[in-house]
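Same chain as my last thread, 232 residues:
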Amino acid sequence: MTTIVAQLSDPHIRVGPHDQGSAAALDAAVRSVLALDPLPVAVLVTGDMADGSTPAEYERLRELVAPLPMPVHVIPGNHDQDLDWEGPRSVECGDIRVVLCDTMRPGRDDGHLDLDWLAAELDGSGAPTIVAMHHPPVPIGIGGLDRIGLPESERAGLAALLARSPHVVRVIAGHVHRSVFAMLGTTPVTTCASTNLQARLEIGSPGFTIVSEPPAFLVHTAHVAHVQPVTA
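reply #2:
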C-alpha cells in the first residue's frame, strides 16, 4: 500500500473572544484528514500552531488534533516562540523518511536553517526523504512574505546540499498561507495553505494581505503531492 502523509499548516489557534474561527477551521481540517481513504500514516503540522504561543492555545490545539489516530509531528513557526517540542529530528513514516527542521528564530519573523545539522541528517540515510520546515527556502513573489523567509545565503546553501542528496524527493513548508510550487535546483518545493486564513495572491506586492479564502492541506506520497480542500 502507498504511504500517505498529510500536512496541515498555520492554524494560528486562538482562544476566547479572539478565536476568529481558528478552532473550528482546524477541526474541519482534522475531519477532512480522517475522511481520507486510505488514512495517512502520519500528520505533519508545519508551524504557527498557536497565534500567541500561549499555554491555553497549545492545549486547545492538542484537543483539536486528538481525534487523529496516527502520529502527529509538529515543527515550530515564527509564532511558536514558547513551544516546548522534541527538537529537530527525523521520523520514519512508512516508506518515507521525514526530516523535521527548526527554522524559528527567537523574537523574529524571518527564519534560519541549520545547514550543518541537515547535512548530517541527509547523509545518514538514502531512503526517500521529505524535508519539512516552516519558512520556505524559495521566494514566492509576494514581497512582504519573502522578506520574512529564509536568507538568500541559506537558500543557496540548501540548493547545494540538495544537489548531492538525490534521495530528497521534496521540501515542504508553511508560513506563506498559500499552496505554492517551485523548484530549488532540481528538487521540488511545496508550501501548504493555512487551515484557516490565506494570503491574497499579490505578485510583486511590497506587503501581504491575509484574507478569508478556502482552506486546504497537502497529501504527500514519495512521488507526488496533492492539494486537498477542507470539505468536512
